[in-house]
Design a protein that fits this description.
The complex is a heterodimer.
Chain A lengths: L2 H6 L15 H11 L5 E5 L3 H6 L10 E4 L5 H17 L8 E7 H6 L2 H10 L4 E6 L39 H6 L5 E5 L4 H13 L4 E6 L3 H4 L6 H10 L6 E4 L2 E4 L10 H4 L14 H21 L4
Parallel strand pairs in A: 1-2, 1-3, 3-4, 4-6, 5-6
Antiparallel strand pairs in A: 5-7, 7-8
Chain B lengths: L2 E6 H12 L3 E3 L7 H12 L6 E3 L4 H14 L3 E2 L4 H16 L5 E6 L13 H5 L6 E3 L4 H16 L7 E6 L7 E6 L2 H8 L16 E2 L8 H30 L6 E4 L6 E5 L3 H14 L4 E6 L1 E3 L3 H8 L4 E6 L10 H12 L5 E7 L8 H17 L6 E4 L4
Helix pairs in contact in B: 1-2, 1-6, 3-4, 6-8, 9-12, 10-11
The chains are: A alpha/beta, B alpha/beta.
């Protein structure tokens, strides 16, 4: 889809929502909704996108919307999609619909993980979109299993003896690929066409699709609001957030940086990693670099690039 | 045309679900409900129903998917028991707060821990304030009849609230009973086709379900829910009247058994009420004016009506198959006592907690409760308000 053409499509998530300036969630959701050609039912897990877009009596969504709870958007949209299939089978409905479940990393990697896994395993015809900003941002930047190692969050604070989050992030995209669903992708808002193309594929496949998108959060990343999209490019250029897709089991790399950058270029502009640049944490940065390199090699391997 | 059948409680509830033919069922198996969803999935596999059966990975997802399906505009059901109901907890409140007319059989079983798979009411009683309508049944026939009626009650425009149709684990769910089921077309006609006014799968008029509801509106929405709950009693009675027309069986908010001229009585719900009837009959033969009040509709609680039915007694014992650990007795006791207080009734009320974890309750034990009540009447003195029946010291 050409960007110009996409820009002419009607907004499905309208202005007037109350997401923060520089928030990636709204950008990601708008781009993904542009790839849908049918009326949709949008489900949101409790989180930034949900609380900011549907404050009663307003809604920023042009489509039908449902929020149930934090950990169950996968199951909730399973129910909606099953109702649709039942009514269609009975001849009580003939219109086509798209079904999309959206969660942040908290609602997807952590508390909503079981519900997501169940929905994917059962094969509902739905798209699950995760906007991964790397922490529970809505409630004040608590760590999640998507938080990068070393990040300073309010529940993994950088202290005198512990330098921020102790664990590497969970590779959820791989876990979703292991569900053997028709389409899995990792994307980033600095490549809007790639993201929309992936969303289109996700809507078009018969069965479940999962897209994991990096979403900047200036509050949680302690970064400049106007530099969010640029940061997601750095994330790809440092190979912290590679772009790839898995179509019917086939891995494909979608972006290969011309010059792979040092991880410090990703860490430095973000206040959440500030403490890593103190002398005593030098080894930790090296360790993070090694981890990224290993991970990048794994992905190159899987994508047949090595 | 009705059919005489011999079925277990679980089997007949599966038959009720087949006849209701919901658009979606999302359920997770749990003892002692398992047979119900097994039989129902066979109906799905054999094409006997139009239902999409969602084989969810937990009860939390069962209730979540049922909420999604109901909000989408379909007729949706689930079924559970015990820990499964506890796992649904959070979403029970969302289902009622979102005013979704979901009907859910609950096969009553003790809550862990320690783990126990047998009957008591701790599961349903824990959910008594979740905004659901709660029916209790003496036997499988009543559970079946309650399930069919619950669809109409929940979907009624003055109500729009979910219903739990309770039946005692094993005692009702696994015992074979002779009972009557209605003809399929009678049920089809009675429940009718479901048409939601506002629903997700309406692209002409999209809606937002479950938005963030803050200080400026939340209270009004809860108030509307309270008003809906107030309407339930009338709707229950209206639907019962109509149901009598097709089934010949009569239902109210509760059943008064030999209560008219009774001086002492017990209040109970569930399968124990059958045992209590035998006790009442035995005592009547001995010339004791004993009676029973069997609660059918427990939530909303028909306080005024129950208090009126009990006010001329000299003493009443309330049987609870659940403990509240409040030191103030069981849940039914608290409700009945408050109802009697409200009408300033001069009736001594005592409480018996019994049958936890499936401990059997015998006719003789209920007779002993009546003996205690006679003592209370004779001495005008309640020695022990809260009692534990059938437990080793």
């Amino acid at each position: 889809m050409k960007l110009k053409e996409a820009a002419k499509k009607e907004e499905r998530l309208t202005g007037g929502h109350r997401l923060c300036s520089g928030c990636g969630a709204g950008t990601v959701a708008r781009l993904v909704m542009r790839a849908s050609d049918n009326p949709a039912v949008v489900g949101c897990a409790t989180g930034c996108l949900e609380v900011s877009t549907t404050i009663y009596p307003y809604t920023a969504w042009e489509d039908s919307f449902i929020h149930n709870a934090f950990e169950n958007v996968g199951a909730t949209i399973s129910g909606v999609e099953s109702a649709y299939r039942s009514l269609k089978k009975q001849g009580k409905m003939d219109e086509d619909f798209d079904f999309i479940a959206i969660g942040g990393d908290g609602g997807t990697y952590d508390i909503g993980f079981q519900s997501l896994s169940g929905a994917m395993e059962r094969g509902h015809d739905m798209v699950y979109l995760c906007y991964d900003n790397g922490a529970y941002m809505n409630t004040g930047i608590q760590r999640s299993s998507a938080t990068p190692k070393g990040a300073n969050t309010t529940t993994s604070p950088a202290g005198e003896v512990i330098p921020g989050k102790q664990q590497y992030r969970k590779e959820l995209t791989d876990i979703m690929a292991a569900h053997n669903i028709p389409y899995v992708a990792q994307a980033s808002p600095f490549k809007p066409q790639d993201l929309m193309k992936k969303a289109k594929k996700a809507f078009e496949v018969d069965g479940p699709a999962f897209i994991n998108v990096l979403a900047p959060c200036p509050r949680g990343w302690r970064s400049k609001a106007e530099e969010g999209i640029e940061l997601t490019k750095i994330a790809a250029d440092t190979c912290f957030w590679p772009l790839y897709e898995i179509e019917d089991g086939e891995w494909k790399l979608n972006y290969k940086p011309k010059n792979k950058k040092s991880i410090t270029e990703w860490l430095e502009p973000q206040g959440r990693f500030k403490h890593l640049f103190q002398e005593e944490n030098e080894a930790l940065v090296e360790e993070i670099q090694e981890h990224v390199d290993q991970r990048w090699n794994t992905i190159l391997n899987r994508c047949g690039e090595l | 045309m009705s059919n005489q059948v011999a079925l277990t409680g679980n089997e007949v509830m599966a038959q009720a679900m087949r006849q209701i033919n919901p658009d979606v069922v999302a359920a997770y198996p749990i003892t002692p409900q398992t047979a119900m969803v097994q039989v129902f999935s066979q109906f799905v596999a054999d094409g006997n129903v139009d239902t999409e059966y969602v084989t969810v990975e937990s009860e939390h997802s069962a209730m979540s998917a049922t909420v999604g399906a109901s909000a989408a505009g379909s007729r949706a059901m689930t079924a559970t028991a015990a820990n499964g109901l506890a796992l649904m907890w959070e979403i029970l409140y969302i289902a009622s707060g979102t005013r979704l007319p979901i009907v859910m059989p609950v096969v009553n079983r003790a809550l862990s821990g320690p783990i126990n798979i047998h009957c008591d009411h701790s599961d349903a009683m824990g959910a008594r304030d979740a905004g659901w309508i709660q029916f209790f049944a003496e036997n499988a026939q009543e559970a079946y009849d309650n399930a069919i009626q619950a669809v109409r009650i929940s979907e009624h425009e003055d109500v729009r609230l979910p219903s739990m149709v309770n039946l005692d684990g094993f005692i009702i769910s696994h015992a074979v009973e002779n009972l009557e089921i209605l003809a399929d077309d009678e049920v089809e006609e009675f429940v009718g086709e479901y048409h939601a006014d506002n629903y997700l799968l309406n692209s002409e008029s999209p809606i937002a379900v479950g938005p963030l509801d803050l200080q400026d509106f939340y209270f009004e929405h809860k108030m509307q829910q309270s008003v809906a709950v107030e309407n339930v009693k009338d709707v229950v009675l209206k639907v019962a009247e109509e149901y009598k027309g097709i089934s010949g069986r009569e239902y109210g908010l509760f059943e008064e058994y030999k209560l008219d001229d009774a001086e002492i009585a017990v209040v109970a719900l569930g399968s124990t009420t059958g045992t209590a009837k035998a006790a009442v009959d035995n005592l009547r033969e001995q010339g004791v004016k004993a009676g029973l009040l069997k609660i059918r509709l427990y939530r909303p609680f028909p306080a005024q009506e129950i208090a009126d039915a009990l006010k001329d007694l000299k003493a009443v014992a309330i049987l609870d198959r659940a403990e509240t650990f409040s030191t103030t007795g069981g849940p039914v006791f608290a409700d009945v006592k408050a109802a009697l207080y409200d009408i300033k009734a001069d009736v001594e009320a005592t409480n018996y907690i019994y049958g936890l974890g499936g401990r059997d309750i015998k006719v003789g034990e209920i007779e002993s409760v009546f003996t205690d009540l006679q003592q209370v009447v004779e001495t005008g003195n309640v020695e022990q308000t809260i009692n534990y029946l059938g437990v080793r010291e």
